[in-house]
Specification:
Pfam families: PA (PF02225), Peptidase_M28 (PF04389). By secondary structure, the protein is of the alpha/beta class. The chain contains 24 helices and 19 strands.
């Protein structure tokens, strides 16, 4: 009994099971001559053995629990430390956003699938207004026109920033474009001359002020005040009988038309030159109240089109492979920007018929008359000399992309102009800063899912039985269905040359691969009113971005108005009545998004915050600085940029998240119906020219029926069928 008890005890300590221990005890007890053993002794030994075994089991369970916790804690800490090292944004952004998986989600695809609401919360977490403000300051320290050392330095900095974000693909696209700059040897000049052309007085011009792509040469004639140089302005002058042929036009900045359109209209009307000035009625000119100084001119290109005008319709990769030609939108008459002081000096000496009502500006000491004659000696005229020079310049567009997981060959594109004649805080700094911040934000959202999934797999390899727990407790990440493309464009000040040349080079590919384009140019010129310059296909998208988040979430999730604290952008728009008609506007010629729609057929949008009834006066001048923009916004530059960036990001999320592209193709039919109805008012004029609008009506009807058929087919489709969703998305873009 003693021997058996000792061996049984030894068996327990060695970890033997209860069945083996009892068997060994019974084998030792059942021996010849031992049958006379005491049954009572056997019962006592077994009872003692059971009690000891229960006690040792408790100890073993306790030890195993402690050892398991130790292994788990050690593995967790090791994984956390290694994860923090490879997570390049954690040290800057704080902890990752905790997003929890819902039951039944599949982790096999490289991370958990997040709902749109969760992605919106993650977006708000990562988007940082401080980073935007700092980037605007860096990007607008000094003038950085295309081809300058400052321009190349900024391009390199942006390329380096993209590389730090660990994008899927990063590259630069170069073109040789013909740009126009002021001559280094001859300055543009303005003279008062007599009837014989003898120079009487030189009117001093700033050598930095010029109109890119102006015709070069000399123009001499009387001066005619043409208001904003719109088509209706010239029609009014013809009605009044004002002599235009051989005269020089004096036009105001603004009026809803670009410099290029002003010069084109003047050329068509028979004028020989154009002088363009900022009137105090349109652009504030009190330096004490954030106004433009009266001796400052506003510069802008005058090419009626976009892209390199010497390679129209094809990319400027290498000029030698294309026949020499030039754009029909290049002006044939010289154009020159002048200051309000110079305009006042000339207009105050004009004689002629009084200006029509509404044409009166606010130049001091000027009684508004149309010209073209001058008071004083007969025959006095103005002579303008333009000596700009053409120069081939290497321009560089910088690209970075996040590859889509399901439809990687479809792109949602975001872009911003990088170059500027002046410091360009509004012209290029704001857009570039928002672009880089959105790239960083989306990259962080994707990296969140990539790193946390890698960490989950590491833990699962160490602790096979804890995979479910770890998969539940770690953060989810953003997995875009379609690819995201971020682009920094060069030579935007010359008519979106960089963007248009890229479009011309890859037009056949982009036609069915570019889902939409969002321009971030001049995104912040105030903080009062939001405007959306857009093609019709994206109108419902921005309405959904404004409405959806505020219907399903509290104000903290809404896009809050940057100026009116505690109120959303949507609530303020709705308070103004018909907010869609006030906010939504057509794309304009100099918009960074214009060429994508007009030339590439890609739906495009340009959002902008601005002041109601007051323009930002420093665009296209040497005074477009961060300090002045901050003064206008009362120190809220980062906040306003963040609000606009968030709104763009919400639309991008929809376009990259939804199985079926959230684009209502019937909106084109509605717009075409509205525009074609306006042709009815011109039917008599069209018939005189042998034209009929009937083909427009027929085409609109065909499109309307096709769009409705496609819309009905999509409604009846299973969105889980990837083959069908890709088919319908292709049809939508086509």
């Amino acid at each position: 009994t003693t021997v058996g008890g000792a061996q049984a005890e030894e068996g327990v300590e060695e970890g033997g099971g209860a069945r083996d221990t009892i068997t060994r005890v019974e084998m030792k007890l059942v021996q010849p001559g031992s049958e006379s053993g005491s049954e009572a002794g056997l019962s006592n030994d077994i009872a003692a053995l059971v009690l000891r075994r229960q006690f040792d089991r408790r100890k073993a369970v306790g030890y195993l629990t402690l050892i398991g916790l130790l292994i788990f804690t050690t593995a967790f800490l090791l994984g956390y430390v290694s994860f923090r090292r490879m997570c390049h944004f954690c040290s800057e952004e704080g902890e990752l956003v905790p997003m929890y998986d819902t039951a039944g989600q599949d982790h096999s695809s490289g991370g958990s699938i997040m709902y749109l609401g969760e992605l919106k919360e993650m977006l708000k977490k990562y988007l940082k207004e401080e980073k935007i403000e700092n980037t605007v300051r860096r990007m607008s320290r000094m003038p950085h026109p295309p081809g300058s050392s400052e321009g190349y330095a900024l391009a390199s900095e942006i390329l380096h920033n993209f590389q730090k974000l660990h994008m899927d693909h990063i590259w630069a696209d170069s073109h040789y474009a013909t740009l126009q700059f002021p001559s280094r040897t001859q300055r543009n000049a303005l003279w008062m001359v007599d009837a014989e052309g003898v120079e009487l007085e030189e009117i001093s011009l700033d050598s930095a002020d010029y109109c890119a792509y102006s015709a070069m040469g000399t123009a001499t004639g009387g001066v005619v005040y043409v208001n904003y140089a719109r088509q209706e302005d010239f029609k009014h002058l013809h009605t009044l009988g004002v002599v235009l042929n051989g005269s020089v036009a004096m036009a105001r900045v603004g009026g809803g038309v670009s410099f290029a359109e002003k010069v084109w209209h003047a050329q068509e009307a028979g004028l020989v030159g154009v002088l363009i000035y900022p009137d105090p009625a349109d652009i504030p000119q009190d330096p004490r109240r954030l106004g433009l100084h009266s001796n400052i001119a506003v510069s802008e290109h005058v090419h009626l089109g976009s892209g390199d005008p010497f390679t129209p319709g094809f990319p400027s990769f290498n000029h030698t492979q294309f026949p020499p030609t030039q754009s029909s939108g290049l002006p044939l008459i010289p154009a020159q920007p002048i200051s309000a002081n110079i305009a006042s000096k000339l207009l105050s000496q004009l004689v002629g018929e009084a200006c029509p009502r509404g044409w009166q500006g606010r130049l001091p000491y000027v009684q508004c008359v149309l010209g073209p004659g001058f008071s004083g000696p007969d025959g006095r005229r103005v002579k303008m000399d333009v000596y700009n020079r053409m120069s081939p310049v290497l321009i560089n567009n910088v690209f970075a992309s996040i590859e889509g997981k399901i439809e990687p060959d479809q792109y949602v594109i975001l872009g911003a102009q990088r170059d500027s004649w002046g410091p360009g805080a509004v012209k290029s700094g704001v857009g570039t800063a928002i672009l880089l911040e959105l790239a960083r934000t989306f990259s962080a959202m994707v990296q969140n899912g990539t790193h946390t999934h890698t960490l989950a797999r590491t833990f699962s390899a160490i602790l096979q039985n804890t995979h479910t727990f770890i998969g539940w407790c770690l953060c989810a990440g953003f997995q875009p269905r379609r690819s995201l493309l971020f682009v920094s464009w060069d030579a935007g000040d010359f008519g979106n040359v960089g963007a248009t040349e890229w479009l011309e080079g890859y037009l056949s590919l982009l036609h069915l691969k570019a889902v939409a384009y969002f321009s971030l140019d001049q995104a912040v010129m105030g903080d009062d009113t939001l405007s959306a310059y857009t093609s019709p296909l994206l109108v419902d998208l921005i309405e959904g971005a404004l409405k959806q988040v505020c219907v399903f979430y509290t104000l903290s999730i809404c896009v809050e108005h940057p100026k009116h604290t505690g109120r959303s952008i949507l609530s303020l728009l709705e308070a103004q009545g018909s907010w869609r008609s006030r906010m939504v506007k057509p794309l304009y010629l100099n918009s960074g998004a214009y060429s994508f729609t007009a030339f590439g057929g890609v739906p495009a949008m340009e959002l902008r915050f601005h002041e109601e009834g007051r323009v930002y006066p420093f665009v296209n001048t040497q005074l477009d600085s961060v300090g002045r923009l901050q003064d206008l916004l009362q120190g809220r530059l980062g906040e306003v940029c963040r609000a606009l960036g968030e709104l763009v990001a919400l639309m991008v999320l929809r376009l990259t998240h939804d199985s079926i592209l959230p684009l209502d193709v019937t909106s084109y039919s509605t717009s075409a119906l509205r525009l074609s109805s306006q042709l009815n008012q011109l039917s008599a004029e069209l018939q005189v020219r042998g034209l009929s609008p009937q083909w427009v009506y027929s085409a609109r009807g065909d499109y309307s029926r096709a769009a409705k058929t496609l819309q009905e087919a999509i409604k009846n489709t299973d969105v889980q069928d990837e083959r069908m969703t890709r088919l319908y998305n292709t049809r939508i873009m086509r």
